[in-house]
Amino acid sequence: MSILLACDFDAAEWALWRPALQAAMPGERFVTSADAPDGIDVAIVANPPAGALAGLPRLRLIQSLWAGVERLLADASVPGDVPIARMVDPAMSAAMAETALWATLALHRGFFRYARLQQEARWAPHRQRRADEVTVAVLGLGQMGGAVAQRVADQGYRVLGWSTRPAALAGVETSAGEAALAPLLARADIALNLLPLTARTKGFFDARRLAGMKHGAGLVNLGRGAHVVEADLLAALDRGQLGHAVLDVFASEPLPPEHPFWRHPRVSVLPHVAAQTDPRTAAAVAAANVQALREGRPLAHRVDRVRGY
Ligand code: NAP
Ligand code: GLV
C-alpha cells in the first residue's frame, strides 16, 4: 500500500518517526507528498497542512497520530467519507496519568504555593491534608480520563468522574450528563479536564462554570486550550475564586510571549507535553490499523464524526 505521511514534524521528529513507521510496516511504501495522488491508500497524519488530504481518490483510511482530532474534523478539505482513526496508545494514557498525578499532588500539597513563597524568601508552612480529604473531579473518562481517574484514585484521592454516557471505574464515583456537572464541580478541590474539543465542550470553563467551582479550587487543563475562556479564567484567578491553574494547552500555541498566563503567579504553564505520542509504541498502533484495512477487518479507534471524538 502507499501511505502518505502528512505530518508537521521537524527534522528531529522525522528522525524518530520514519524508522519507527518503517519498522512497524516493513512492506509498505511511504511518501511525504502526493505526487501520484491516485495511488495513495492511507494517510498517516499529525496536524496536516490544510488541503493535504483532498483529491486522493483511493484513500481508505486517515490515521491520526494525535488523540484529539478536532482540527481534522474542522478542515473542510478532509474527505467526509473516509474513516478517521485516532491515536489510542496505552503508553500515552500512562504519560497523561503521570502528568495529572503530578498536578494533583502539587495542588493538594501546596507545592505551587511554596514555589511562589520561595520567590519572596518567605517561610510559611500550611497544615497538610491527607489525600482522602481531597476531592478530584475528572472530566472525560475515555482513554485519557479513564487512566487519569484510576491513577489518582489509586493514590488515595476521592475521585469523581464525569462523561456523557454512564461509565464504571473501580474506586471512582462516576456520573453522566449535564445535570450531574454543577454538583460535581461544586464538590471538587481539583478539576482535571480530559474532554475532547467538540461543539459541546468549546468554552466549557466560562465565567458561569468557574463561578460554580469550589472557592480556591485548582483547575488542570490537559484537554484543549479552547475548553477554557482565558479571560474568564484570569478573572476567576484574580478574585481568588480559583486558587491555581495548571495549563498544558492554549487557545493559541505556542503560547505568545506577551500572554498574561506566562507571568501569572497562580498559573503553571506546560508547553503541550502532558502526553506526547511516542513513535516507539504509536507506530505499531498505526500499523495494526493498516493491517486491518489490508485484511478487510474493522478499523480500531474510529472517530464518530457526529460526536466529534
Ligand atoms: P476519548 O477516549 O474519546 O474520551 C473522551 C471522553 O470525554 C469520554 O469519556 C466522553 O464520554 C467524554 N465526553 C465527550 N464529550 C463530552 C461532553 N460533552 N460531556 C461529558 N463528557 C464528554 O478521548 P481521549 O483519548 O481520552 O482524549 C481526550 C482528549 O484529551 C483528546 O481529545 C485531546 O484533546 C486531549 N489530549 C491532550 C493531550 C495533551 O498532551 N495535552 C494528549 C492526548 C489527548 P462518552 O464516551 O460517555 O461520550
Ligand atoms: C495531543 O494533544 C493529542 O491529541 O494527541
Characterize the structure shown.
The protein has 309 residues and is of the alpha/beta class. It folds into two domains: 2-89 and 277-295, Rossmann fold (3-Layer(aba) Sandwich), CATH 3.40.50.720; 91-269, NAD(P)-binding Rossmann-like Domain (Rossmann fold). It is 32% helix and 17% strand. It has nine helices and twelve strands. The chain has helices at 11-24, 70-74, 90-109, 111-119, 143-154, 181-187, 207-211, 230-238, 279-295; strands spanning 2-7, 29-31, 42-46, 61-64, 84-85, 135-139, 158-163, 172-176, 190-193, 217-221, 242-247, 267-269. Helix 8 (230-238) links the parallel strand 10 (217-221) and strand 11 (242-247). Helix 1 (11-24) crosses helix 9 and helix 3 (90-109) packs across helix 5 (143-154). The longest helix has 20 residues, at 90-109. The protein is elongated and about 65 Å long. The protein starts with a strand and ends in a 14-residue tail after the last helix. The mean pLDDT is 97. NADP nicotinamide-adenine-dinucleotide phosphate binds at residues 67-68, 96, 140-145, 162-165, 194-198, 200-201, 222-224, 248-249, 272, 274-275, 309.
Element string (H = helix, E = strand): EHEEEHEHHEHEEHEHEHEEH
**Stretches with pLDDT under 50, minimum 5 residues:** none
How many structural domains? 2
Task: Tell me the CATH superfamily of the largest domain.
Answer: NAD(P)-binding Rossmann-like Domain
Oligomer: single chain
Number of helices: 9
What is the CATH class name of the largest domain?
A: Alpha Beta
Intertermini distance: 27 Å
Q: Rounded to an integer, what's the Rg over CA atoms?
A: 21 Å
- Estimate the mean pLDDT confidence: 97
Give the overall shape: elongated
Helix content: 25-40%
Q: How are strands sequenced across the largest beta sheet?
A: 8-7-6-9-10-11-12
Strand percentage lies at 15-25%
How many strands, which pairing sense, and closed or not: the largest β-sheet? 7 strands, parallel
The ligands found in this model are: NADP nicotinamide-adenine-dinucleotide phosphate, glyoxylic acid
What's the CATH topology label of the largest domain? Rossmann fold
Q: What is the number of beta strands?
A: 12
